[in-house]
Structure formats: structure tokens, C-alpha cells
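User: Small ask, check this?
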Amino acid sequence: MKFFAVVDRGINMLNIFSKKKKEPPLNHYKVINDLQEATRKAYNAYKEVDVKLKKIERLYEDKIKDLRLFKGLSNISLELLSANNFEKSVMRCLKILTEVTKYGHCVLYVNNEDNTYASILFEHFKQTTTEGTILSCLDFNKYPNWTTKLERREVICEEGVTLLNKDFKDHGLEQICIAPIFVGKKWWGCLLLSSFKKICPAPNETEVIITVSNMFSETIRRHNLLKETECVQNRFHDFSSYLLNNINGIAFWMKDYQDRYLFLNDSLINILFPGKTKDECIGKTDPEILAGVSPFELNLDNISGPSDLVDLDLRGIDYERICNLTDQITRHLGYPCKYFELIDQYVFEVWKTPIFRNSSQGTQFCCAGTVGALKNVTTQKEEKLEFIKTLQEKNKSFPINGTNNYYIVIEDSSSIFFD
């Protein structure tokens, strides 16, 4: 009995020892769950990174679009500021606008007097496959809500089924943007951009279109002002020509820096060039008109003032070659002068002033020609000669070349300057 009791205790002790050393059974489900949770966390982290990268990519793409729009806007601004030809400049701007936006068609419209419709003025297609114009006229009677918005200086963006009239769909247009153009307070017209497919404009594209329409507003205002100025100048030229041609007995003219006539009135032709026409005189000098010879250019380097003219040597020079003598003197002295010229049996009282303009460097003025007036005072010859002698005593009149044929009188008046 004791033997079996000892064996039982030994077995029990062995069992206790074996339980302490035995590893717990592996839980495969828990391992799988842990792996799934780790994978889920990694995937969620990847999604977060991917979303952030896509946001950065979209931001980058938007910035690229904005840079392209800004570059186009800068080019349009430079084009309008430096343009000499209004029509060509506007066409180039429309081309630039279609290149930097997703719209394929750009039109500039001008309104009629009562703003009921707008007619096409300029048009540009990004691709030249389309022939002719799409909408030569916008009838605002069909779109009263457009009229209201445009008059309030609002931009209209329409697409797809929201287009109110089939005129657009008949041409395959799917999307349009219209910006009003105001000249001063007047609604002048509008800038329309259209696309033959649905597009997603860049974030700042509408603002760029508005800015371009405002640029057009200023350009059109300046262009209209220029046309009005030219019209006024033409009317003034017609009026002044009429006025100068009808002042009895007084001749007027304008010459360039080579003493060629730019303008002369009928009185001058009757006095100096009887039998000639204006067309025969314009662009020519006095010697060319009178004798068909080139003018003789005098050497006036030693002439610093009117008192030096008495030493001017004119021997051997016939009248026809020096009839523009006082033109050369006036240009040389650079200020207004009055002359008395005794030619044969005639006596002329002459006023001349130089015309100055900016030089090519823009830092100083250079002589561009002369303006003059002439009056026949032959009937007052003796009185005028007495007056000349009185002025000579006051050093305000000087003979030219020591003869009694030409005199210069200092005039205290302003020259003419042109920018």
C-alpha cells in the first residue's frame, strides 16, 4: 500500500511539473485579426497620403492654369497698350484669350443704339474647321434676363439645357460665357466665349474674362476718343483751310525742315506762284516751284544773331535760289522773326516762326519746320521803310547782306512746340 501511495505522489509531482513547462495552444484567429487590423491601418494611412497628394496635384494644376491665365492676361495687356492698329490688336487679343482658356470660340459684339441686339465686330476660332460666323447677331429680346444682368455689369455663364434658345444648339454650342463691355457709363457691347463641348473652366477663368472685357472697354474708349479727335482735327483743318483761304490779301503756309510746303493758301499762290495749283506746290521748295532748281543751302555757322546778318554774302546767288532765305534764317535762329522783303516793285511784310518737336532721343527739341504769313504792303512802301529806320536806331531791325532788299525785325513772341 505504501508503495502505491509513493507512486501516486510521484505521478502527481510529474504532472505538476509538466503543466508548468507546457506552452499554451496557438490562437490562429487572433493572429489573423491582428494582421487584418495592421493592414487596415496601413491602408487608411495610404489613403490619407493619397488624398493629400491628389490635393497637392490639383493645387499644382490650378496654379499652372492660373499662371497660364496670368501670362495670357499680361500678353493681352501689352498688346492693347502697344497697339497701333485697333483691329489687328483686338484680333490678336481674342486669339490669346482662346489659347489660355478652354473656350474654342471668341466674339466681340457691339450693341445697337437701344441695346436690343448686338452685331458681331470681331471673331476668332481656336480651330479653323468652322466656316463663317456662328452668331452674327445676339437678339436680346429673346433673352430679357441676360439684358438685365449685362446692364448690371454681371457675367453670364450658361451651359447645356439651360440655353434659352436653339440658336446656340443649332451650332453645336454647349457652353458660353458673356461679359459686358462698358465705355464710360454706356453699355457698349459684350465679349462672348463659347465651347462646342462641356468644359470645366479654371478657377480664375471668369475673373480673367472680366478683366479682359474691362481692358477692351478702355481700349475702345481711347479708340473712339482718337476717332473723335481725328474727326475734330479734320473738321478744324477744313475750317482753318477755308478761313485761311478767305482772308483777303494775307498769305499763309507751313513748311517742313527742308523748306518744302506742307500747306499754302490761295493768297500765297496768287502772290508768288500765279498759274500754279496747290498740288504742284505741295512737297516742293520755292526754287523748285519757281525755277525747277534745288534750293541753295546757306552757310549760317557764323551767324549768332540778327546783327550778324549784315555780313551775309549773297553775291552771285539769284533770287529764285534764295527766296527761302528767311526760312533758313528763322530755322537757324530758332525763334520768331518778322521780315521786310523788297522784291522788284513789291514790298512784303513777312512773319515766320520755327516749329519744334521732340528729338528721337526725347531729351531735347529739334526744328521740324516753319510757319509763316505774308502781306503785300507795296502801297505802304515809304511808310514801312521809315518804320524800319526807326527800329534800326533801337537795334530792333537789321539789314540782311548789307543791301536794302531784306530786313529782319526782332519779334518778342513764342515759338511753336510739338510733343
Q: What stands out?
A: The longest strand covers residues 346-358.
